[in-house]
């Protein structure tokens, strides 16, 4: 990767702000889309979690922002979850300069969101449900939106938001520029591209996925009674860990059980008010707690740097969820540890899922003894571990399709 943001046509004010935030060179998807996106083309981008899609759309969004009138943003980003929407807004603000960035989502009061819209914003980051509510109240209009971004289109689709996304896009300027980003581009996402994009340039960053390729995947057979202890051992050995549970109740319980074992944990699930979720996330990102226990919906799209490991305390719903969960570690090409805790009746399903994603790990008894030392394992140490040699050794360093 030898190009620079400046050479891709990114304005100096933006590349300077990015550098202040430690971002010096574009990632592959960013380099791939930047010139077309800045030139006003529609972009359809497929790239795995952690590949840097936010800046890929965010830089053109800020660079080409048109001054907005009250209640009439000129750029719109649609996002499936509150946490992801917040994250996008935070990322954009880090280099947005004069360009005003606002964010709206459900679960919090309307007043502040209505005021921000009244004061005027160029870029509005929104979850579809709340945005429709605000439109119905006359708090915002979308006719001036010249650039729309559909982020995590596959997730929006999985969560049932596509009808709302369509209704929202229908209200934006018909000649707008449209970006669509997704980890997959099939099914409903393809239809969305067909109906809402104009001769898009498609860019894909394939499948040497940071999540699957760079991580060290373990599958442990544990009894119900051993699960909490096994989970605690991973956290103690690996450091900052996100633990996935299926239910709100289960995640609350596990959080308590971990703390009884001397592990500080914060919990994040949809049953909590937004400020509580934000606080939990902050405790974790600041390193004040060792573990973040989360349900899938709450964790969708949150980006936490340097997570040493991911534990699937309850099995994921399907292979896509496994990839999304596991993508919390080994982001941006760094190594990471991913541990699935399987009860005897869950092993068949786990094997089927392994086959879907091309993993070939043996299911073993818990072996915390040879877990990496405390702190994020680096890529080199993970790559030399014997476990990894079992994951398609021939494909290491070469491109490998993930689905
Ligand atoms: P995703 O493709 O999942 O949306 P993000 O855009 O959130 O990924 O980026 C993943 C992580 O990589 C973020 O922490 C982000 O700050 C970081 N990142 C993105 N682009 C760069 C870059 N060019 N250089 C360094 N870090 C980057
Ligand atoms: Mg993203």
Describe the structure.
With 403 residues, this protein is of the alpha/beta class. The chain folds into 2 domains: 12-204, Rossmann fold (3-Layer(aba) Sandwich); 212-399, Rossmann fold. Helices cover 40% and strands 16% of the residues. It has 18 helices and 14 strands. It has helices at 12-20, 28-38, 53-63, 82-93, 111-119, 128-136, 153-158, 162-170, 187-196, 210-214, 227-238, 248-260, 274-285, 296-299, 319-326, 347-357, 379-383, 386-389, and strands spanning 43-46, 75-78, 101-104, 123-126, 147-150, 177-182, 201-204, 215-221, 241-245, 265-268, 291-295, 309-312, 336-342, 363-364. The strands form 2 sheets. Strands 3-4-2-5-6-1-7 form a 7-stranded parallel β-sheet, with helices on both faces. Helix 2 (28-38) runs parallel beside helix 3. The longest helix is centred in the middle third of the chain and has 13 residues, at 248-260. It is globular, with a radius of gyration of 21 Å. The structure holds adenosine-5'-diphosphate and magnesium ion (MG). Magnesium ion binds at residues 53-54, 151.
Set out the fold topology:
Layout lengths: L11 H9 L7 H11 L4 E4 L6 H11 L11 E4 L3 H12 L7 E4 L6 H9 L3 E4 L1 H9 L10 E4 L2 H6 L3 H9 L6 E6 L4 H10 L4 E4 L5 H5 E7 L5 H12 L2 E5 L2 H13 L4 E4 L5 H12 L5 E5 H4 L9 E4 L6 H8 L9 E7 L4 H11 L5 E2 L14 H5 L2 H4 L14
Parallel strand pairs: 1-6, 1-7, 2-4, 2-5, 3-4, 5-6, 8-13, 8-14, 9-11, 9-12, 10-11, 12-13
This protein binds adenosine-5'-diphosphate and magnesium ion.
């Amino acid at each position: 990767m030898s190009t620079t943001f400046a050479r891709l046509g990114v304005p100096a004010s933006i590349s300077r702000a990015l550098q202040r935030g430690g971002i010096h060179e574009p990632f592959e998807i960013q380099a791939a889309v930047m010139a077309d996106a800045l030139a006003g083309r529609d972009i359809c981008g497929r790239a795995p979690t952690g590949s840097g899609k936010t800046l890929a759309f965010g830089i053109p969004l800020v660079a080409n922002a048109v001054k907005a009138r009250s209640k009439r943003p000129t750029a719109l980003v649609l996002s499936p979850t509150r946490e992801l929407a917040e994250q996008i807004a935070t990322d954009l603000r880090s280099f947005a300069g004069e360009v005003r960035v606002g964010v709206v989502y459900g679960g919090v009061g309307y007043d502040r969101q209505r005021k921000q819209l009244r004061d005027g914003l160029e870029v509005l980051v929104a979850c579809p449900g709340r945005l429709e509510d605000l439109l119905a109240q006359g708090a915002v209009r979308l006719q001036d939106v010249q650039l729309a971004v559909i982020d995590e289109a596959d997730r929006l689709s999985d969560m049932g938001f596509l009808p709302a996304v369509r209704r929202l896009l229908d209200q934006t300027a018909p000649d707008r520029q449209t970006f669509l980003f997704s980890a997959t581009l099939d099914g409903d996402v393809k239809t969305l591209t067909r109906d809402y994009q104009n001769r898009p340039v498609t860019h894909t960053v394939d499948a040497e996925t940071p999540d699957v390729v760079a991580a060290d995947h373990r599958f442990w057979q544990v009894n119900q009674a051993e699960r909490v202890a096994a989970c605690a051992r991973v956290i103690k050995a690996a450091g900052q860990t996100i633990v996935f549970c299926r239910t709100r109740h289960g995640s609350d319980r596990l959080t308590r059980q971990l703390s009884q074992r001397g592990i500080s944990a914060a919990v994040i699930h949809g049953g909590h008010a937004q400020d509580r979720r934000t606080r939990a996330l902050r405790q974790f990102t600041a390193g004040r707690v060792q573990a973040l226990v989360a349900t899938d919906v709450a964790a969708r799209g949150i980006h936490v740097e340097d997570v040493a490991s991911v534990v699937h305390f309850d099995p994921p719903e399907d292979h896509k969820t496994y990839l999304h969960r596991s993508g919390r570690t080994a982001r941006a090409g760094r190594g990471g540890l991913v541990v699935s805790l399987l009860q005897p009746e869950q092993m068949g399903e786990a094997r089927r899922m392994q086959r879907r994603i091309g993993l070939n790990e043996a299911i073993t008894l818990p072996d915390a003894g040879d877990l990496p030392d405390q702190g994020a394992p680096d890529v080199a140490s993970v790559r030399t571990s014997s476990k990894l040699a079992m994951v398609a050794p021939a494909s290491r360093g070469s491109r490998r399709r993930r689905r």
